[in-house]
# Entry
Amino acid sequence: MNSEPLLLATPSGDVLKLRPEGSWTAANVTTLETLSHSVGADVDRSRVVTLDMSGVSALDTLGAWVLEKLSRRVASSGRSAEFVGLADQFSGLMDEVREVNRHTPAPTAKPNAVLLSLGDLGKATVGAREDITIFLQMLGALFMAMIGVLRRPRSLRLTSLVYQLYRIGWQAIPIVALITFLIGAIIAQQGFFHFRRFGAESYTVDMVGILVLRELGVLIVAIMVAGRSGSAYTAELGSMKMREEIDALSTMGLDPVDVLILPRVAALVIALPILAFIGSIAALYGGGLVAQFYGDMGPAIYIARLHEAVSVTHFEVGILKAPFMALVIGIVACSEGLRVKGSAESLGRQTTTSVVKSIFLVIMLDGLFAIFFASIGM
Amino acid sequence: MGESQEQFAIRVRDLVVGFGRQTVLDHLSLDVRKGEILGLVGASGGGKSVLMRTIIGLIPRRSGAIEVMGHEIGGTQNPGTQGAAATWGILFQQGALFSSLTVRQNVQFPLRENLVLSQELMDEIAIAKLEMVGLRAQDADKYPAELSGGMTKRVALARALALDPPILFLDEPTSGLDPIAAGDFDALIGTLQKTLGLTVFMVTHDLASLTTVCDRVAALADGKIVAIGPMRDLLQSEHPWVRAYFHGKRSQMLQHEMR
# Structure
């Protein structure tokens, strides 16, 4: 059924007779392109071109278009081209093809690369302002929703809140504990290894205690939660947005902030301090194990040293930061989710943005808190 | 065997498909002749889409044999299915356009993957296909998220037709289109079928398409094909479900109008 396509060109004076033969189908597209290019010069020379279609055994849209393109090349310079011997079964297709590609829009000029990058910079700057506005809007909306709940406590979506707490709190405990345990152990090992050189091994416990309780415990946990739960929030809300579920909610007179966002953010604000506490304890435990097996320091001495080294203040400084970090993660995750447009790509992009942005903001917030606590002497 | 391959584009023998304890298709047999437009009707949730998706290898079957253009169909990774995949174009109910590609790239995707051709020709073919399904060249650079339902269907059809496949599977092609657009769609399918000698397997509820473009209509009920033949014969069918389908109030009204 598939026979090699041919294009026989017989020029006689001003008249060029083209006779395509064989299968003019997509399967032979490479040959077809070569054939139509090879007669290009002959076609341009001749005043009248006839296309004798009687030898064509199979034709599809692609083959028909290649032939039509040849005839348009002639017609465009005011000369004449005609098809003869067109079999009945192909005439419908040729008629279809004759109608297409008549109104090609003018190609848009490619803008200058420098201007383009300047444009991107400008867009990013404006975008940053928009980001801040969206963040503040979401904060305000959450605040209003909070007030609503305080006025009518029954309007709190308790089921949803508990479910979110289970998902982002309870189910996160094993992985949070494992990772902070390892971090604690690594810090202790490094401490023993380097402090040993000048005989200050016992200060390792001070380092582990203060570092974990003040900074690392909460920071590591916040980063993990941003990656684990923040991304989930963005993807969930994003796909709800894509499937118009959020629009459906609004048309039923419900506020998506009340129904979807407040329980999620509230769950984060409740869960993150608890996770940070569990993480800190796990890290201290990891440090203790390393102290026993690597630093030759028994549990009793470790605990006694810890008791001397850290005070409640250190713990407070760490745990006070947690709800604020949770709020930032929640707001970023939810507002990025609502910014998802129709495509799968946009869902992926928004999820990445959500995680990157919330980790950045969490670290920046940690820095601000460090300055704040230092200046009030905590 | 040799003769059957000549005559039939799709052969389904004793097909059983089910999920869990539920059997959706129960020893179903169906032949689709080369060059015909076959309409498949059946109750909502009765297994029409399941049959189509099984034929194209997306749903595993419990038993039975399926042959498309002489290729034995297995799972999607099966060599027989991949051989057959080159011979079909599929229009999914929701369009299933690639959302990260523009309309133009969506239509070019099968061309780019299967053929070696210049970008210029590929662009022209893509625009040609889009215009053939009734879209404009200006729509080519839009993303699927920016399209209306009817446009999505048209782009999906253009993509299904990109390689001029000998078999076209259509899952409810005219649902969600206005009557004018649906009529154009039917006319287009008819033209393409005539010019390209396409075999069309169409799942549809649109009585107008069944009457105007389908050469034969198959009715699926209780997991089997209970009636198959030209629309005239189906109207005469004695099977209770088929009677209810074609002689219900809505169908009667439509048929009356058409007379």
The domain at 99-197 of chain B is CATH 3.40.50.300 (Rossmann fold).
